[in-house]
Specification:
The chain has no helices and 8 strands. It is an all-beta fold and 104 residues long.
């Protein structure tokens, strides 16, 4: 069963959302004055270490950025800051939800 494709408008990266897509984690954007298009504070469920980077994509599932996707280049578990390789089209808002998928 296919749930459609998500394509990054800026980089052209594409992932097919279907039953075989390994959705690893879910998360939500947290309030932080430093939130920006390329880095923001987030609660990622079940993540206690800094192991999310490089092989993971973050896809928004709610809010103004829904279906936008970017590669996660770093997640600092101590500060809860997610950094992506190419900035999203806008600043994520507290409460926006997303999934993190392993794509390699």
């Amino acid at each position: 069963m296919s749930f459609g494709k998500v394509i990054c408008q800026k980089c052209g990266f594409e992932i097919e959302k279907d039953e075989s897509t390994s959705i690893q984690l879910t998360g939500v954007v947290l309030t932080d004055v430093g939130n920006a298009e390329g880095a923001f504070k987030a609660e990622i469920l079940d993540v206690l270490t800094d192991g999310i980077n490089g092989d993971f994509a973050l896809i928004f599932t709610s809010g103004a950025l829904v279906d936008e996707m970017q590669q996660v280049t770093d997640f600092d578990a101590s500060t809860k800051i997610v950094t992506v390789g190419i900035a999203f089209s806008g600043v994520p808002v507290a409460g926006d939800k997303f999934v993190v998928v392993k794509y390699k």
